[in-house]
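Annotators were shown the component list below and the corresponding predicted structure, then asked to write short factual statements about the assembly.
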Amino acid sequence: MSAIEDLAAELAKLPGIGRKTALRLTYYLLKQPPAQSRRLAEALGLLVERVRRCSVCANLTEADPCAICTDPRRDRAILCVVEESADIGAIERAGEFRGVYHVLGGRLSPLDGVGPEDLTVTQLVERVSRGAVKEVIVATNPSLEGEATALYLQRQLAGQVAVVSRIARGLPVGGDLEYADGVTIAQALSARRAM
Amino acid sequence: MSAIEDLAAELAKLPGIGRKTALRLTYYLLKQPPAQSRRLAEALGLLVERVRRCSVCANLTEADPCAICTDPRRDRAILCVVEESADIGAIERAGEFRGVYHVLGGRLSPLDGVGPEDLTVTQLVERVSRGAVKEVIVATNPSLEGEATALYLQRQLAGQVAVVSRIARGLPVGGDLEYADGVTIAQALSARRAM
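Structure shown to annotators:
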C-alpha cells in the first residue's frame, strides 16, 4: 500500500470521514508545506502520550488531578455529573457553573452492553459518601439513555447527599416553538415556572 | 495550550473540518486504543517523507519516475493533461484510458495570481516537442478556469503535436435532464452525435 493510500485509510477510520474525504484531505496535506503534516503528527503523538484520566473526577487531563479539581476557587460542595469530558467543555464555555465535575465515561445502555460497572459510578458514590458534597447535579444528555442513567444515579445517591438535581429540559434559547418536537414542548410546559 | 486543544487546532486547519468537528475527532481518538493515533501519526510522517513529484509527469509518487510512466503497457503516444494528481486517480478508476499523464499542478487563475509559470506548462511543451506524442487530451475541469487553461494549452501546443483534444462535456451518465443546469444542457445539445 502506498503512503497516500495508507494515510487515507487511517483518516477514513475517523467518524464522519469517508474514503473520498480522506483522499481529499491527504492530497490537501501534500499541497501544504511538510511542516503542517509534521505538526499534526506530533500533536497526535503528544495526545496519546500526555492525556490521561483525572484520578478525582475522571476528566481527560494532562496533570493529575486536573485543573478544575485543583482550582481553589471551585465550590467542592456542588458536583456536576456528565457523560463525557467533552460535556465539561460545553458547560465551562457557558460560564455559569463554579462547582466541580464527575465524568461517567458514557451512559447506561443495555442494548450496547454498557452497564454501571463500565462507568465510574462506584467512584462517584464513594466520592459523594465522603460527605463534602451538598448537591449532585445530574447533567447526562436529555436522551432516553441519559434519562435512564440519571434515574439510576438518583437511586444510587439517595441518602448519600442532601440534593440530587437534574438539569432543566425545555425549549432551547433562540429556538422556535413552531419547529420544536412534541416531547420538548411537553417538557417545557410541565416544567413551567411562575413569572 | 493543552495536548487536546493542540491537536484540535491542527485538525481544524484541514479543509471542511471546523473547530467543533476537530474537538469531536480528538475526543474520539482519546476513546480509541492509543495504537490508532500512533498509526495515523506514522502515516502522516511517511507521507511527507516518501511522496514526491514524478520528474516525467509531475504526478505524486513514491518512486521516480512513477508507476504509470514506467509501465511498458501504457501508450506513450497519448498524453492526458490533468490539473491535479487526484484527477489521475479518478480517470484510472474509470479504467478506459491506457495512455500516460501530465499533471499541471493547478489551473490558470489570474484572480488567484496563478499564471502559466506556476504550472508545469514548460515541462509539458518540452515533453510534447520531443515528438513521441501523437495526441494531447486536455482533461482540465469543465469549469471557467479549466476551460481557459485548456484554451491556453491548445495554443501553446499548436504545431507541436498532431491532435489536441478536449474531454467531452454533456449530461453525466445517470443524471436527470430535469435537474441539469442550462449550460450543461446547451453543451450536451451542441456536442450531439449521430446515432
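Statements collected:
1. Chain B has seven helices and six strands.
2. Strands of chain B lie at 52-53, 60-61, 75-82, 99-103, 135-138, 163-166.
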